[in-house]
Amino acid sequence: MRETVGTTQPATWNGRHRPRVSEAPWRALDAARIGARRYTAVMTDDAEHGSPVSGNRDVIWPERFPRSAKYDARWMRDAAMGPNPLWLTEWLYEAMDLRPGMRVLDLGCGRAASSIFLAKEFGVRVWATDLWIGADENWTRICEAGLQHEVTPIHANARSLPYAKGFFDAIIAIDSYIYFGTDDLYLAYLAPFVAPGGQIGVVMPGFAQDIGDHLPEHLRPFWGQDCWSWHPAHWWRHHWARTGLVDVERSDNLPEAGELWQRTEEGGDEAHVVAADKGRYMGMIRLVGRTRPADPDAREISR
Ligand SMILES: C[S@@+](CC[C@H](N)C(=O)[O-])C[C@H]1O[C@@H](n2cnc3c(N)ncnc32)[C@H](O)[C@@H]1O
User: Fold this and answer.
1) Is 45 domain-assigned?
2) Could you give the number of structural domains in the chain?
3) What does the pLDDT read at residue 293?
4) What is the pLDDT of residue 55?
5) Nearest to 98, CA basis, from 55, 67, 76
6) Ligand 1, closest atom to CA 174?
7) Which residues contact 48 (CB under 8 A, 6 or more apart)?
8) Does 85 sit in the ligand 1 pocket, CB within 6 Å?
9) N or C: which end of the chain has fewer CB within 10 A?
10) Other beta carbons within 10 Å of 295
11) Ligand 1, pocket-test mutation among 176, 203, 227, 286, most atoms within 8 A of CB
């Protein structure tokens, strides 16, 4: 088990399943069990890396995410802290305007899988920034990928970022924005770190449809207090649009979200929840906004 840094989660947590913050002390036992199950699954996988065999359904989905399918199944499983971050990044990329050489902040990057993927696939330079996972661990992974000059690991809190205003051409957040981005004031803090006319793109779990005042009964076994930051796409659009800080270019739910959750939870304790849900409520939300050019003399995004 790895030690993690500056967290609200149990030190023994090593799962790809999100920790339930409110249940942390006893969740640790669960996490250890999940970790053990995962390890066994990895060891029994088809040794041929990247092959789309059924045992790799949680990380290899070539029909939907062909770029991600080229990566090593075991590497992806070890680096993920939720649904495969390469899939989520590949989907986000489809709605973003990322070009080689751009400076990208990967906020809440976890084990930096999305950062490595972005640098390798699209030639961008990435600042891989996370709170729970330390820079030492991510630097090791970055070096193993041979991306020492493209990806920089930073241990920092999304609420006190150590960067200059306007430094980034784009910001992404994969399965992390729900931990800090529901704060009404957060976008006003984050947006100035992007050069005017740059994009902020996030992908996160959320609802495929409104739940009203009541959590659907079948979701209860999956639910923790930290899940209350799940919202549908239209909620997120409104959350950003009303600030006037960005033009919202995309707010949608992954059409294949039901299958994504089924693949992610396959063989796990919560598989029955996603099977019952069938993508009706458990969604994967994408939100992309472009910062408004404020000052005609401000630096333009990198060409
Ligand atoms: C579910 S994990 C996802 C990690 C990674 N993006 C992935 O998809 O595998 C959520 C991540 O959000 C990060 N996070 C939560 N709150 C944060 C904060 N205040 N500042 C920076 N990162 C934060 C955690 O450190 C954690 O790595």
Assistant:
1) no
2) 1
3) 80
4) 83
5) 67
6) 6
7) none
8) yes
9) C
10) 8
11) 176
Q: Which residues, other chains included, contact 192 with Cβ-Cβ below 8 Å and sequence gap of 6+? A: 165, 166
Distance 226 CA to ligand 1 centre (A): 13
Residue with the smallest CA separation from ligand 1 atom 26 is 110
Q: Is residue 281 part of a domain?
A: yes
Domain assignment present for residue 300? The answer is no
Please name the residues in contact with 244: beta carbons below 8 A apart, sequence gap of 6 or more: 292
Q: Sign of the C-alpha dihedral, residues 222, 225, 227, 228?
A: positive
For 2-45, what is each residue's pLDDT tens digit? Answer: 233 333 343 223 333 444 433 322 222 233 323 322 322 222 34
Ligand 1 geometric centre to CA of 140 (Å): 18
d(CA 178, ligand 1 centre) in Å: 9
Domain encompassing residue 286:
81-291
Cα of 199 from ligand 1 centre, angstroms: 20
Query: Residue written as tokens 């947006």?
Result: 191
**Kind and range of the H or E run holding 282:** strand 282-291
Looking up residue 223, the CATH number of its domain turns out to be 3.40.50.150
CA of 182 to the centre of ligand 1 (A): 14
Residue 93, domain member (yes or no): yes
Query: What is the DSSP code string of 104-129?
Result: EEEET-TTSHHHHHHHHHH--EEEEE
